[in-house]
Amino acid sequence: MSEYAGDLTPQEAWELLLSDPAAILVDVRTEAEWRFTGVPDTSETGREPIFAEWVNYPAGARNTQFVDQLRDAGMSPETGAPIVFLCRSGQRSIGAASAATAAGMGPAYNILDGFEGAPDEDGHRGVQGWKASGLPWRQG
Q1: What is the CATH number of the domain that holds 44?
Q2: How many domains does the chain have?
Q3: What percent of the chain has pLDDT over 70?
Q4: In a domain, 1, yes or no
Q5: Is 110 part of a structural domain of the chain?
Q6: Beta strand pairing call for 24-27 and 83-86
Q7: pLDDT tens for residues 88-119?
Q8: What are the Cα distances from residue 9, in Å, to 14, 18, 59, 101, 125?
Q9: Which residues form the Rhodanese domain (predicted)?
Q10: Does residue 92 sit within a domain?
């Protein structure tokens, strides 16, 4: 896969979304994650996030239509719009950013720590990431 543009903290990603009217957030988690753990609320930017699973639930198989779904959502090499990718912990979104870059889209960025972050020493999520940073979100 191609090298993506880099990693952003959740706050840096939010600031990019607020400051660049062309920037778009793509949430690559599964439908179950969107429904049960919530989604970023980007209403302040005037643009809704794009929801495209990087892997399918429950099988966990890679979504072979991912890049096509991005194109269907209006992303293309011609726009040059910044794309920030979000998953649960910042891992799947690396693959998504790389795939978008390989397709000529972007610049494509990964959001560090994702929506909920990695599990803590007790196995709990939510101490890092978008939600823990106090950024806007809503129940899916």
Answers
A1: 3.40.250.10
A2: 1
A3: 98
A4: no
A5: yes
A6: parallel
A7: 998 999 999 999 999 999 999 999 999 998 87
A8: 9, 14, 29, 19, 17
A9: 19-127
A10: yes
